[in-house]
Every structure is written in structure tokens, then in C-alpha cells.
Amino acid sequence: MFPAQLTYHRAGSVAEAVQLLSDNEGAKLLAGGHSLLPLMKLRLAAPAVLVDIGRIEALKGISASDGGITIGALTTHAEIASSDLVQQNAPVLAEAAALVGDPAVRNRGTIGGSVSHADPASDQPTVLTALGATFNVTGPGGDRSIAAADFATGLLENALNDNEVLTSISVPSVPSGAGSAYVKFSHPASRYAVVGAAAILSVSGGACSSASVAVGGVETKPARASSVEAALAGSDLGDAALDAAAAAVGGDLSGDPMGDVFASAEYRRAMAAVYVRRALGAAASRAG
Amino acid sequence: MTVPVEITINGKACAGEVEERQLLVHFIRENAGLTGTKVGCDTSQCGTCTVQLDGVSAKSCTVLTVQASGSSVTTIEGISDGVDLHPLQEAFWNNHGLQCGFCTPGMIMAASELLRNNPSPTREEIRHGLEGNICRCTGYQNIVSAVEDAAGKMGGR
Ligand SMILES: Cc1cc2nc3c(=O)[nH]c(=O)nc-3n(C[C@H](O)[C@H](O)[C@H](O)COP(=O)(O)OP(=O)(O)OC[C@H]3O[C@@H](n4cnc5c(N)ncnc54)[C@H](O)[C@@H]3O)c2cc1C
Ligand code: FES
Ligand code: FES
């Protein structure tokens, strides 16, 4: 299998990538290629022009920034999984990165490609939603920022204009002493998330002082689980409190349930509560 | 349309004129003539096309040749000196880590990265490290044993 005929450009800078996108209608960015190329081989996508951003150094790497870390869009899952900065500031991101696909996929796949592709079965969009991350974007008119929760707009759709490039992701540090966790129900063949749940919990004086929870895989984009968060507020994070909070996730999933041959919509909804419960349990045990 | 590319494969510069849509695995097999690297699923799942691309394992069916132009690739043909087998090759042989052998080049390329990152893995860690490689024949037990054996023989190398 091979993609349809295409013209390939390698962009040397973000400005050049934006120019190439503006000059070529229907052009697509190519980062690690591990979501786009499989689609192109199946002819589910056939962009006439590819703009390869894979060698733009300015888009790579992880740095400390005000109140958190900034992760270049081209940073690979493998780099995130093994980064000390990520481990110190947002360990849940490293935990999720290590669960993506397999080692070769983690070597090529990038965080920017993962969120831009907006596949509901991917892991990092769910974690970044729970973390309250901000996505930094450059286009012909300059720079702008988009909140993680607003970035995916539907199945394989994002909030970018056709000639914008996601350049980096700003991730606030989790509060000190917070416990966090990401757990997923991996599809047995592809390892993609049938359901994924992320939780970040803080305790103070034996009671939950802040909770941030998100669930992915169930609907066309990750959902912030505000009903679960509300149920956790002030609770003792004991088993009964976590059971009750996880059961509330149904209230956060009214929209657009998805089902397929592997997992029906009803099954995914049931699993959402189960995996949220597991994420809460793991995060609570790490808090304090 | 074709475009010029140049990729260093197993230390040797390989230049060619290729279609922009060509996949790296086809450049390796058809342009460079190195047929150790296989095409199995062709859908990024099975890992038999695994090579080292700029030092890390990559599924060469999911990389465009033009993307890899200017990079260095190591294939299964490049891991030994051509006379003595690499300890992983020797261990796969000694432990009956293959039957038809179709998955073996990819298994060995993935295992060599695993041992580079973790010179003495547990059996569980070996299984995780080879998660992206599928074998239809062996049932994996002997593959895991082969990698364990090679790790011991390589002594952290
Ligand atoms: C076998 C296999 C298993 C996988 N398993 C998992 C899994 O378990 N969990 C998971 O989350 N993912 C999984 N993935 C997907 C993997 O994480 C991808 O690497 C990732 O989703 C896309 O990153 P990429 O760099 O390869 O993007 P590409 O394929 O290069 O691009 C994907 C899309 O994003 C756009 N894009 C890329 N970069 C940018 C940018 N900077 N700005 C704007 N748009 C951009 C592209 O135009 C394209 O539309 C798997 C992939 C494979 C092949
Ligand atoms: S042929 Fe490349 S992963 Fe199967
Ligand atoms: S030995 Fe036949 S596929 Fe592995």
C-alpha cells in the first residue's frame, strides 16, 4: 500500500510552514506521520501537498516556564515518557506517554500530532484536558492560544485554521503534594484507548481540596468530568467517596456517545465509570 | 514526480530518485536491495519492517523516503560485521526464537533498542519492549528467552 501522488515540502521554520500552508490549498502538515501516513496508505486521506515540519528544531524539546513547563509540538511520546521535567511538574503526562502504542510508535509520534489529529482514542488529549493545558498556535496573523478543552472540536477535527501550526503546549505544574494518574482500557490489538481517564487530586487536612478529572474515548472528544470533580470536593477520598464520585461521570457524558464493533456506546459509558474510579483510586493513593 | 534523496544505510550513502510518496521500507528493499527488512501488515502494527532511524527504532512502512532523506538507517544487515553473528542473532538461533523467520529482523531491531535502553530487562520488560512486534509462529516464549540470553551474553554492552 502506498499513498496517492503528492508533492513534498520540508519546512525549515514555522514561518515557512505557515507560508507553504497558505500557498497550497488542502496542504497538510506532517510531523511524525504515525497518524497521517496510515490514513494516506488506506486512501482515507489524500492531501496533494505535505509540509514536513519534522526537522524544525524550534518545535522540539521541553523547558521550564512560568508556573509549569512548555512542550514543543514535535516532542515525541518517548521523550515525554523519559523527561525529568515532565516527571517533576506533570508526572501524569509521562505516565500516559509511556502507554501510547509501542516503542517504535513512541519514537516517531509527537504530542503536537497527537492532539492535532484529535482522535478520541488517543491518550494525551484527555490528560491535557485534565491538566488545563494551553495550546500555542502560530498563523499568518501571528500567535494565539487555545485552551486544551476547546482544541478538539469533534471527531478528527480541531480548532486550527488551515494555515496555522501548533507550536507548543503550556502545561501548568500540578499542585505540590497532588496525586495524579492516567489509566486506560487499551484496545487489545492497537493499544489505542477504548476509554482513558485522568485524575489530579489534592488533599488538605484529610479532605479533597482540588480535583481535576477528564475522560476520553467515550465521545468524539475528551470531556472534563465536572460532576465527578464536584462530588469529590471536600470528601475524604475514601472508597465510598470515590465510588460515588466515579458513578457521577454519566452526568458529564450526555453529548455524543460513540460505539463501534469492538465496544458499543453503552459499554463505553459503563467503562467510563470503571476507569474513572481506577484513576481516582490511583491518584488518591499518590496524594498527600 | 521523482525527487533526489540520500540516506546513509548501514554506514553507506545510498542515493536515489524516488517518488515523493515512496515508503522508506521500499527504498531499503528495492533501491538499496536490502531485503532483510520485511513488509508484513503494511498498517503500522506488526513491526517486521522495524529499522533504526537516526538511532531509534522506527516502522519503515510508516515513514516516507523523502522524510528520511539526510538520515542514517541501520537495518538487520547492518547489525553484525557480516562474519560473526550479533549476540541477538546468535541467541535467536540458539533458543529457537524463530520458526518461519519473517518477524525476526524486526524483532531483533526492536530488541537491540530495548537492550540499549535497559541492558538487563526482566521477562516482563522484554515483552513490553517487543509490544510493537507480532509473531505468528513461535508463541513468543522463545523470543523472550532469546533476548534474555543475549542480554546476559552482552553483559550490559
Ligand atoms: C500502531 C499505532 C498505535 C498507536 N497507538 C496509540 C495509542 O495507544 N494512544 C495514542 O494516543 N496514540 C496512538 N497512536 C498514534 C500516535 O500517538 C501518533 O503518533 C500521534 O497520534 C500523531 O502524531 P504524529 O506526530 O505522528 O502526527 P502526524 O501523523 O504527522 O499528524 C497527525 C495530524 O496532525 C496534524 N499535525 C501534526 N503536527 C501538527 C502541528 N504541529 N500543528 C498542526 N497540525 C499538526 C497533521 O497535519 C495531521 O493531520 C498510535 C499510532 C500507531 C501507528
Ligand atoms: S509492515 Fe510495518 S508495521 Fe507491519
Ligand atoms: S517466526 Fe514466523 S512470524 Fe515469527
Can you offer a commentary on this structure?
The complex is a heterodimer of chains A (288) and B (157). Chain A is α+β, with helices and mostly antiparallel strands and 288 residues long. Chain A has helices spanning 14-23, 36-41, 77-81, 84-89, 91-97, 103-108, 111-117, 124-131, 148-151, 226-232, 239-247, 265-286; strands spanning 7-10, 28-30, 49-52, 62-65, 68-72, 134-139, 142-147, 152-154, 157-158, 165-172, 179-186, 193-204, 207-216, 223-224. Chain A is globular, with a radius of gyration of 19 Å. In chain B, a hairpin with a 2-residue loop joins β3 (50-53) and β4. Chain B folds into 2 domains: 2-78, Roll (Ubiquitin-like (UB roll)); 87-153, DNA polymerase, domain 1 (Orthogonal Bundle), CATH 1.10.150.120. By secondary structure, chain B is α+β, with helices and mostly antiparallel strands. Chain B has helices at residues 24-31, 65-68, 87-94, 104-117, 123-129, 141-154; strands at residues 2-9, 12-19, 50-53, 56-59, 72-74. Chain B is built from 6 helices and 5 strands, in the order ββαββαβαααα. The longest helix of chain B is centred in the C-terminal third of the chain and has 14 residues, at 104-117. At the A-B interface, β1, α2 and α6 of A face β4 and α4 of B. Bound molecules: flavin-adenine dinucleotide and FE2/S2 (inorganic) cluster (2 copies). Residues 98-103, 135-138 of chain B line the site of one FE2/S2 (inorganic) cluster (FES).
Which characteristics define this entry?
heterodimer, A: 288 residues, alpha+beta, Uridine Diphospho-n-acetylenolpyruvylglucosamine Reductase, domain 2, Uridine Diphospho-n-acetylenolpyruvylglucosamine Reductase, domain 3, Enolase-like, domain 1, 3 domains, five-stranded antiparallel β-sheet, four-stranded antiparallel β-sheet, 12 helices, globular, B: 157 residues, Ubiquitin-like (UB roll), DNA polymerase, domain 1, 2 domains, five-stranded mixed β-sheet, 6 helices, 5 strands, binds flavin-adenine dinucleotide, binds FE2/S2 (inorganic) cluster
